[in-house]
Amino acid sequence: MNPNELFECVTSLSCIVTQTSTGLIVGALLFLVATGLTLIFGVLGVINFAHGSLYMLGAYLGLTGYRMTDSYLAAVMIAGVGVGLFALIFERFFMRRVYNADVLMQLLVCYAFILILDDAVKLIWGAEFQSMGMPEAFQAPPLFIGGGIVPVFYLVLIGAAALIALVLWTVLTKTRTGKIVRAAAHNPTMTSALGLNTGLIYAGVFACGGLLAGVAGALAAPVRSMSPGMGFSILIESFIVTVIGGMGSVSGALVGALLIGLVRSFGSIGFPSFVEGVMFIAMALILVLKPSGLMGREPRA
Fold first, then answer.
1. Most distant CA pair in the chain: distance in Å?
2. Do the Cβ atoms of 43 and 184 come closer than 8 Å?
3. Using CA atoms, how far apart are residues 105 and 93, in angstroms rounded to an integer?
4. Interior CA angle at 14 toward 12 and 17, to 5°?
């Protein structure tokens, strides 16, 4: 524990700027992964335990796409579309068959795919650590804001996450598609009775969740090393985010992700050996004080 160092940091503008920017990019990546997870749960009522592996697959597809095209934007698009298509296949041929099954059956199906994808990554890309490196377009001197250092790529990640959050909010709240998705989440039986294809809605939502995980993996590739099994840690953090924000709430996922990102960033200074513990304590407190999460809906009586 280093409370003195944490106090010195929060009383220094340069340290606040540096650590806040770091926390924001962690939160941005967590949001992209967690929002896909919570979107799937909110509509399908299924917790996709293989979601972290979709993030891992996105990182490796982004690496391959970047090596093929030498374009980071193209790499992110390839990763997003590729993982989205894989998620669609996964949902249509496997998850669809266990929607109404016991949660243990869903867990076993997802865990099987976690093992399959980990081995597939080893066969295709190898078991050693890999790194994309910083794309040439972002190899620029960092910005100095209030004496703090903010890499240019951090601003790109934060901007990309903010744009995706805005698009999601607009689609879910302002468009007919969003109304249909929310109707399917609220009352799938009535939605089906009205002549809407709920199976198609479920497939689309699952694919969208996979796309978001793939985009997150590709966006993280320049600043994080890649290895088989890398999806497990971000899956745990994503579950913490969804529990804190509220299962099924996209806005809650954003709040929870930013909160966890800042806790990670500043906690690494004040209590570097207990950051994980603080996250779990925060989750436990939320479950005790408000079981539905900060922005989740209270269950109906």
1. 63
2. yes
3. 15
4. 110
Burial class for 78, CB neighbours closer than 10 Å (0-12, 13-18, 19+): buried
Tokens matching residue 223: 């600043």
pLDDT (tens digit per residue) in 30-71: 998 988 888 888 777 788 889 999 999 999 999 999 999 999
Cα–Cα distance for residue pair 256/245, rounded to 1 Å: 5
Which positions ≥6 away from 120 have C-beta within 8 Å?
none
CB 198 within 8 A of CB 191: yes
Q: What is the DSSP secondary structure assignment for residue 151, as one 8-state letter? A: -
Compute the distance between CA of residue 243 and CA of residue 300 in angstroms, rounded to an integer.
18
pTM of the entire predicted model: 0.90
Q: What residues does 150 pair with on adjacent strands? A: 143
Distance between CA atoms of 84 and 88, rounded to whole angstroms?
Answer: 6
Helix (H, G, I), strand (E, B) or coil at 183: helix
CB 136 within 8 A of CB 5: no
> Looking at the DSSP assignment, which residues form a beta bridge with residue 125?
none
CA distance 95 to 109: 7
Centre a 10 Å sphere on the Cβ of residue 167 and count the other Cβ atoms it contains.
Answer: 10
**Distance of alpha carbon 188 from the chain centroid:** 25
User: Number of C-alpha atoms within 13 angstroms, CB side, residue 161?
Assistant: 32
SS3 249: coil
3-class SS of residue 220: helix
- Residue type at 161? A
**SS3 assignment, position 130:** strand
What digits encode the pLDDT tens for the residues 204-214?
999 999 999 99
Q: Is the separation of the CB atoms in 37 and 242 below 8 Å?
A: yes
Dihedral (Cα; 126, 129, 134, 136), 10-degree rounding: -30
151 Cα distance to chain centroid: 22
In a 3-state reduction of DSSP, which class is residue 49? coil
In single-letter form, the type of residue at position 81 comes to V
